[in-house]
Amino acid sequence: MTTLVANPLLNPFFAPAAERIGLLLGLSLLLICWVLRKHGRDLFRQGLFVKWRTWAIIAPLYLGAVFGGPLAIGVLVLGMTLQGLREYAELVGLVTHYRRVLKIMGITAVPVGLASLDGFYLLAPLLLLVAVAQPLAFQAVSTGIRQLALSSFGWAYIAWLLAHLVLISRYIPGGDGVLLVIGAAVALSDNAAFAVGSLFGKHKLTALSPNKTWEGVIGNLLGAYLGTGLMSFALPENLYWLLLIGLPPLIAVGSVWGDLFESAIKREAGVKDAGSWLPGFGGLLDRIDSLILVAPLSYYFLRLMI
């Protein structure tokens, strides 16, 4: 178990990580400029600058939280959780009182995870007992059970699964380095999937997301290995080769899985994006859908290995 708060600048991994992130952002900006100059300044390609700007904000925030200790990660996850729950509630049409209860329950996973691992595992059944009282308390006759099911799932899907990032930081030896690798691998997996799918995609993957292709899935895997290799210096030495080889396929699977699942939610809701909160990407859920499933998959994989 690590201390709750740390100075990111004192971590020996901070400087090399910042250098690699800066280099990656710089090279991607040069590539965007080349694309604009070669193909013209149409609205679609100008949108690449918006995405780049968003990444330029996200990357240092994540880096500071990773090396700031479990409490810093907890604050970041809590912010993502509340915004993610807000977008989810809008997508599935939760009524006002169920939204309020969902947000209140949503803030429990992070502090409980920071305080106690056993408490975190007990949280789901305890909150379910509270949840089943909602249709009775709200006197919901026609849609109470449906609203209960949607709100309970929303808590488990977003708040509980995302909070596994806190567990990695708090209870996994070398967890800060692992989180750095996960962040880079997820980001590059998603971006490589988009690039490879756009350039070479011919074979459709699923009706849930018509733009997804099997070629894009290959891009997911390549991007996951690239991100892992880029930040591999931060992996725990005793698990270095195991994680270097075994973590990228897990992250690629989680990224595709999470992306397709969120697509299923959006298709049922009849919308293209989960919101407009994050410039260039739509809603926050559109950006963290991969991370939501990668977090628990990585945590339990690490638990099995140590």
Summarize the SSE layout with pairings.
Elements: H1 14-39, H2 43-67, H3 70-92, H4 96-106, H5 109-115, H6 117-131, H7 134-137, H8 144-162, H9 164-171, H10 175-200, H11 214-230, H12 240-269, H13 284-305
Helix pairs in contact: 1-2, 2-3, 2-10, 3-4, 3-8, 3-9, 4-8, 5-6, 8-13, 9-10, 9-13, 10-11, 10-12, 10-13, 11-12, 12-13
Walkthrough of the structure:
This protein is mostly helical. The chain has a domain at 79-163. Helices cover 76% and strands 0% of the residues. The protein contains 13 helices and no strands. The longest helix has 30 residues, at 240-269. It starts with 13 loop residues before the first helix and ends with a helix. Pfam families: CTP_transf_1. Pathway: Phospholipid metabolism; CDP-diacylglycerol biosynthesis; CDP-diacylglycerol from sn-glycerol 3-phosphate: step 3/3; Lipid metabolism. It comes from Methylomonas denitrificans. This is Phosphatidate cytidylyltransferase.
Provide a count of the helices.
13
How is the quaternary structure best described?
single chain
Encode the helix/strand succession as letters: HHHHHHHHHHHHH
User: Which structural class matches the secondary elements?
Assistant: mainly alpha
Stretches with pLDDT under 50, minimum 5 residues: none
Largest sheet, in brief, is: none
Distance between termini?
Answer: 13 Å
Portion of residues in helices? over 70%
- Radius of gyration over all CA atoms, rounded: 20 Å
